[in-house]
Amino acid sequence: MKIIILAGGKGTRLPRSAKNIPKSLVKIAGKPILQHQIDILEKHNLTDIRFSLGYEANQIIDYLKNKHEYIIESEPLGTGGAIKFASKDLKEDFMILNGDILTDINFSEFLKFHKNVPQANSLTV
């Protein structure tokens, strides 16, 4: 399954110490939020990750070191626009994560639930 991480946010409400870096690169417990996300996804064998980038995209690209796919919005599209842009070529199911959240969701169970219920979308908060 393809995972799309929306990581184009500016972080306008973050403290000065986090200015000029994308929200997903803010460090929590010594590592960037996006690395926490990658780690939890990999724990559930979810490794096909595409990052949707915008603000200071090059910083994230440098961090990822070409280990993951990414696309860059030429202008801010908002959440819905970013999802549409990032998924336009996908034919299979995909999962969306905001690039500025930390979670310990059991993605394996969540995906099992999604596959066993007769609806097009599943959401967790």
Automatic annotation (TrEMBL):
User: Which species?
Assistant: marine sediment metagenome
Task: Name the PANTHER family on file.
Answer: SUGAR-1-PHOSPHATE GUANYL TRANSFERASE
Q: What is the lineage of its organism?
A: unclassified sequences, metagenomes, ecological metagenomes
Q: Name one Pfam family in it.
A: NTP_transferase
Q: Which residues form the Nucleotidyl transferase domain?
A: 3-119
State the InterPro entries in the record: Mannose-1P_guanyltransferase, NTP_transferase_dom, Nucleotide-diphossugar_trans
State the protein's name: Nucleotidyl transferase domain-containing protein
Which parts form a coiled-coil structure per UniProt? Answer: none
